């Protein structure tokens, strides 16, 4: 019954925290962490712990794949230099700085590097949840950084653990080889699985089977890379970015109606569950601490958090000026942002699931059989840093106002342009297509009127235009009448004049009409 109790409790926490986040200006992630801390006070629920391999092999591939599918590859290419530097050099610098600080606080170099590597990467889930209202370029760079930097950090983490435990010997050539193979092998594995998924899905005409194939894809990419001792994270990201480009050509509307709501719901539940797990782990870390006093541990948490945040601020306010000295091309000058605007990037260095899974996966014993040095302290420091970096989200709205970010109208402009362009293409092809299909004149006239109406709405844009007002009234009336039809169907079912099967089929038709009128967007 314990598992069922946790499922119910988790569901209640997600609903309650989501409702509070809508009512008060607090990020849902922070409320979920607090809920996890409160759960830790209940003795019967303290054993709620996910094995680290479940987070790395189940949660992480699904979350990274969805983030890769829904990000902008064009923006990643435009900001590739920033993404690459942040996901490699910044990760290594953060790991080294944290290791040095932890060693100065009393940890041996091995455990210090383990802690540094675990805390080096930012979290894609936290960035996506907490920074979704930022301009497209800012969000894309943050998400791309957090998608790629896990690969670098986990290689450093594996080296640090292996050297500390006594299973590996450290040498510059060995480190260079592992890093190179991690990236190359991960990209190759992701590309291979993406190509296979593309070829399989393009031959499917069953939306349910195609949805299952999509569900399997990220786990296959991760496992293939992991089996080759490459980066499973990079494999999933590479596969997701590739599928984001080819899937619109091979995925039908029926399959998208199944996939998009499913992935949106499941990834929301998974990411929320991880934030609750962070809170529970904080409780557990404090209870299990035995190698140091609570006061010393709190000081360590504050110092390491200051180092993690400080390195990011130093990076954000030094590297752009170095790049400007080296690259003076006019195209790059147009992409520069002010120092005020870079505060958003500096604050958005949240830590999350990868850091938690890494520290929880630290072995309990060395190769010699001795206990892993200061493992309980490492876990507590990492949990504390995760919580404190997430608390930066409380200041994110104020930082955004301070940054005076320019209003991002590019998406709206491109949306209107694409809408108008696609409608013009349909209108131009109307007569030819009608002749090919043998459509009657009445049908052609009806479709032409509908396309002309849509073209007027697309060109009108937003505002108090009479066309928009007319369309809103038409939509509201149509939705209200759909509600009356549903009431009539329920009345027939209650009087046992129609069967439940008939009710569900007709409700499905009405639901499709409602989605069309309401212009629902499952990605938002």
Q: What is the number of helical segments per DSSP (H or I, 4+ residues)?
A: 24
Give the CA-based shape.
globular
Radius of gyration based on Cα positions: 26 Å
Arithmetic mean of pLDDT: 84
Q: Give the SSE order as H and E letters.
A: HHHHHHHHHHHHHHHHHHHHHHHH
Return the structural class: mainly alpha
Q: Ends: how far apart? A: 36 Å
Strand content: under 5%
Bin the helical content. Answer: over 70%
Main beta sheet: none
Please count the beta strands (DSSP E, at least 2 residues each).
0
Low-confidence parts lasting 5 or more residues at pLDDT below 50?
A: 520-524
How would you explain this protein's 3D organization?
- The chain has 24 helices and no strands.
- Residues 520-524 have low confidence and may be disordered.
- 35% of the residues are buried.
- It is mostly helical.
- Helix 6 packs antiparallel against helix 8 (136-165), helix 9 (172-202) runs parallel beside helix 11 (232-250) and helix 20 (410-428) packs antiparallel against helix 22.
Which SSEs are present, and which pair or pack?
Layout: H1 2-23, H2 28-39, H3 52-69, H4 73-78, H5 80-104, H6 109-119, H7 124-130, H8 136-165, H9 172-202, H10 207-227, H11 232-250, H12 253-288, H13 294-316, H14 319-326, H15 330-334, H16 342-347, H17 353-360, H18 375-390, H19 396-403, H20 410-428, H21 430-437, H22 441-460, H23 466-494, H24 500-518
Short structural summary:
The chain has 524 residues and is mainly alpha-helical. Helices cover 78% and strands 0% of the residues.
